[in-house]
Amino acid sequence: MTDKVSIHCLYDLTHTAAAPLLSKLTYPWEALPEISEFILKLGPTLPAEEYDRRGENVWIAKTARVFDSAYINGPAIIGPNTEVRQCAFIRGSALVGAGCVVGNSTELKNVILFDSVQVPHYNYVGDSILGYKSHMGAGSITSNIKSDKTLVVISADGDRIETGLKKIGAMLGDRVEVGCNSVLNPGTVVGKDSTVYPLSMVRGFIPARSIYKHAGEVANKI
């Protein structure tokens, strides 16, 4: 089971600048406490002809489009050809890849967004890692802390992995589609190429190439 939620099963690391960080780890959530420091080390090494440094510890690709009303707090890196739209709120510790969309009123905090990720409308993404070409529908969010504030445990196929972390949102594999107004509960892991129906409340592990309809009904993609 544990292999199913490992980094190499969820992600193609050729699609993220975070590859040096993730490649040394077993599980993706192990990267969460290291995102800030990784950005602070990576940022100064980015080529000046390709990135502008704006404010304190914020690096934005010259080909990125950032609307005037967007707020970006460091440490943060915004990749090439990414669009950060009106009133986006990037709170810090955000590594956003190339060709991404961070939409209107979307909030990011302590995240890695692989290349071509779309969080385009009213999304909250905190303490999470979103794989290549993953997409969160309008209003879908990651819930990153349990109501009783206890440490998050990753559950999959009847097994439990103690994370030792209080805050973990969702780990979305490559090309995951999350339907509108869904809630991904703390410690949710969704395998590659899976789809979550709109208005879903997701908990635990969803296998690769699955369709999550609701709790207890998960179908395999043909």
Outline:
7% of the residues lie in helices and 36% in strands. The chain has 3 helices and 25 strands.
How far the N terminus sits from the C terminus, by CA atoms, comes to 22 Å
Q: Mean of the pLDDT scores?
A: 96
Give the number of helices: 3
Give the SSE order as H and E letters: HHHEEEEEEEEEEEEEEEEEEEEEEEEE
Q: Any key phrases for this structure?
A:
single chain, eleven-stranded mixed beta sheet, mainly beta
Descriptive overview:
This protein is mainly beta and 222 residues long. The chain has helices spanning 7-10, 19-22, 35-42, and strands spanning 51-53, 58-61, 65-66, 71-72, 76-78, 83-84, 89-90, 94-96, 101-104, 107-113, 118-121, 124-130, 135-136, 141-142, 153-156, 159-162, 170-172, 177-178, 183-184, 188-190, 195-196, 201-202, 205-206, 210-214, 217-220. Strands 1, 2, 4, 5, 7, 8, 10, 12, 17, 20 and 23 form an eleven-stranded mixed sheet that branches. Strands 13-18-21-24-25 form a five-stranded mixed sheet, with no helix packed on it.
